[in-house]
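Researcher: Quick test of sequence recovery. C-alpha cells follow.
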C-alpha cells in the first residue's frame, strides 16, 4: 500500500459519513462510500444529499461519479480502498442511557470478512470506552488477511458547519496500536495536517474518551449558564449580561455560553447519557454524576419555556393559537433529533393549544415525528392570528423579524424569546409583551 495517497472508503452514509466522504474527495482523495440502505445510495448517486447541510450539495456534485463513488457492496469497498472509515450511528438505546452499538459491530464485522490484504479500519463513530479494543479483536478474528488493523479517529464536526469543520478541523485525534497505523492516518489527513491542524496520537481508550469528554464539557457549559438563568429569574438579574460579563474572562470565554432553551440534537444529549451508563459499568459513576444534573437543568429549561408562555396567555392554553418558530435542534440544520423546540411545541399542544410550527428547513422531518401539530408554509402564514409567538430555534429569518410589521399579523403581541436573540427594548417599544429565559 502506498502511504502517499491512500484510497479511502466510508462505511455509513449518514450525516457524518456523507460529510467525511465528500470532504475527503474535496481534499483530493479517491473515495468510495457504502451504506446498507440501497435507497440512500441511489439518492447519493443521483447527487442528492439526504439532509440539509450548507455547502455539501455543491461539493457532492463536484466530485460525484469522479473521485467519489457509492456502493452497497462490501466486497467492492474492501477491494477499492486501503483505509476504511466507519461512520455509522450510535443512537441511545430505547428506554436506556447506554448507546446502541449494533451498527458499529455489524459494520466492522461485514467489512472485516472482505479484508484480503493489508488495510486499516478506522472507527469514527462516537462509542463507549472499550469498544475499539473489541472491534480490533473482531477484525483479527474475521479478516482473511493477518494485516488488517483498527484505529480510532473521533469526529468533532458541528452540524451547519460540517464542511468547514472537516476541511479545517481544530485538531485530529488518532487512537492507534502501531506506528504503521499512525503513518496511514497521517497520509489520509496529509492536506489537513499540512495546513497546521494539531495531531494528538494516543491509545484507543483516550481517543474514545476525548470525544465524550469534549461533548460533556460543552453540555456542562451550556447547562451552567442555564442554571444561572434559573437564579437570574429568581432575583430579577439578566443572564445575557451575566454571560457577557463572565465571558470576558479568557479562562471562561463567551462561546457556548448562550443561555436559552438549551441543547438537543443527535450528539450532546445521547453522548452524556451513554457516558453516564459506561462510567457506571466501569465503577466510576460518581466521577460523572454531575452529568445527570447537566441533563436535568437542560430539560428543566423546556418546562420553564412552556410555563412562561402560559403566563403570557393568562394561565390556560385551551383554544389559544400558538406559533412556534423553529423545529430543528439548532439553526442551519434540518435535524430534529431531541429538538428542544419540538418538545416544547408538543407539550403546549398537549395542553390544548392550537400549535402551528414553522421552520425554514426542518418541516418534513418535524411533520413525520409530530403529525399532531400544524405546519405553516411561511413565516407570515405561521404568525397569522397568533395569540402567542415562541422563538425556539434562532434561524436568521426569525432574528431579523420586524416587531412592528409582524405586530399587524398576529392577534395578540405576546412573544417568548427562547434563545435570547431579540432586542427586548425594540420589541417592547413595538407594543409586545416580551418574555425570555433568565431575563426580567
Ligand atoms: C456537537 C458538538 O459541538 C460537536 O463538536 C460534536 O461533534 C457533535 O455534537 P452539534 O450537535 O452539531 O455538535 O451542535 P452544537 O453546535 O454543539 O449545539 C448543540 C446544542 O446546544 C444545540 O441545540 C444548540 O442550540 C445548543 N447550544 C449551543 C446552546 O443552547 N447554547 C450554546 O451556547 C451553544
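Model:
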Amino acid at each position: 500500500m502506498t502511504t502517499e495517497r491512500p484510497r479511502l472508503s466510508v462505511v455509513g452514509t449518514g450525516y457524518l459519513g456523507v460529510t467525511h466522504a465528500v470532504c475527503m474527495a474535496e481534499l483530493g482523495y479517491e473515495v468510495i462510500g457504502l451504506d446498507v440502505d440501497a435507497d440512500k445510495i441511489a439518492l447519493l448517486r443521483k447527487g442528492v444529499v439526504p439532509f440539509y447541510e450548507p455547502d455539501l450539495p455543491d461539493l457532492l456534485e463536484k466530485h460525484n461519479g469522479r473521485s467519489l463513488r457509492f456502493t452497497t457492496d462490501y466486497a467492492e469497498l474492501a477491494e477499492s480502498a486501503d483505509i476504511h472509515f466507519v461512520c455509522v450511528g450510535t443512537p441511545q438505546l430505547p428506554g436506556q442511557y447506554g448507546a446502541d452499538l449494533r451498527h458499529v459491530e455489524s459494520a466492522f464485522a461485514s467489512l472485516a470478512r472482505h479484508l484480503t490484504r493489508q488495510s486499516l479500519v478506522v472507527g469514527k463513530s462516537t462509542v463507549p470506552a472499550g469498544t475499539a479494543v473489541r472491534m480490533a479483536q473482531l477484525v483479527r478474528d474475521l479478516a482473511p488477511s493477518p494485516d488488517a488493523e483498527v484505529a480510532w479517529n473521533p469526529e468533532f464536526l458541528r452540524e451547519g458547519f460540517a464542511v468547514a469543520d472537516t476541511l479545517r478541523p481544530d485538531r485530529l485525534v488518532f487512537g492507534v496500536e502501531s506506528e504503521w497505523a499512525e503513518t496511514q492516518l497521517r497520509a489520509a489527513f496529509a492536506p489537513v495536517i499540512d495546513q497546521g491542524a494539531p495531531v494528538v496520537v494516543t491509545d484507543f481508550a483516550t481517543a474514545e474518551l476525548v470525544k465524550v469528554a469534549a461533548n460533556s464539557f460543552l453540555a456542562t457549559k451550556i447547562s451552567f449558564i442555564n442554571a444561572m438563568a434559573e437564579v437570574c429569574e429568581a432575583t430579577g438579574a439578566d443572564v445575557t449580561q451575566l454571560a457577557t460579563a463572565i465571558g470576558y474572562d479568557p479562562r471562561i470565554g463567551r462561546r457556548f455560553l448562550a443561555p436559552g432553551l438549551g441543547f438537543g440534537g443527535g450528539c450532546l444529549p445521547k453522548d452524556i447519557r451513554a457516558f453516564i451508563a459506561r462510567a457506571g459499568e466501569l465503577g466510576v459513576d460518581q466521577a460523572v454524576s454531575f452529568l445527570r444534573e447537566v441533563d436535568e437543568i437542560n430539560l428543566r429549561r423546556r418546562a420553564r419555556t412552556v410555563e412562561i408562555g402560559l403566563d403570557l396567555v393568562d394561565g390556560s392554553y385551551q383554544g389559544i393559537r400558538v406559533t412556534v418558530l423553529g423545529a430543528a435542534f439548532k439553526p442551519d440544520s434540518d435535524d430534529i433529533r431531541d429538538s428542544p423546540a419540538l418538545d416544547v411545541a408538543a407539550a403546549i399542544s398537549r395542553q390544548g393549544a392550537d400549535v402551528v410550527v414553522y421552520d425554514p428547513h426542518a418541516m418534513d422531518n418535524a411533520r413525520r415525528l409530530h403529525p399532531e401539530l400544524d405546519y405553516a408554509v411561511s413565516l407570515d402564514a405561521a404568525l397569522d392570528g397568533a395569540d402567542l409567538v415562541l422563538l425556539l430555534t434562532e434561524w436568521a429569518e426569525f432574528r431579523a423579524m420586524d416587531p412592528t410589521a409582524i405586530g399587524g399579523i398576529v392577534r395578540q403581541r405576546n412573544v417568548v424569546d427562547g434563545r435570547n436573540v431579540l432586542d427586548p427594548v425594540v420589541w417592547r417599544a413595538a407594543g409586545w409583551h416580551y418574555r425570555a429565559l433568565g431575563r426580567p
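The radius of gyration is 24 Å.
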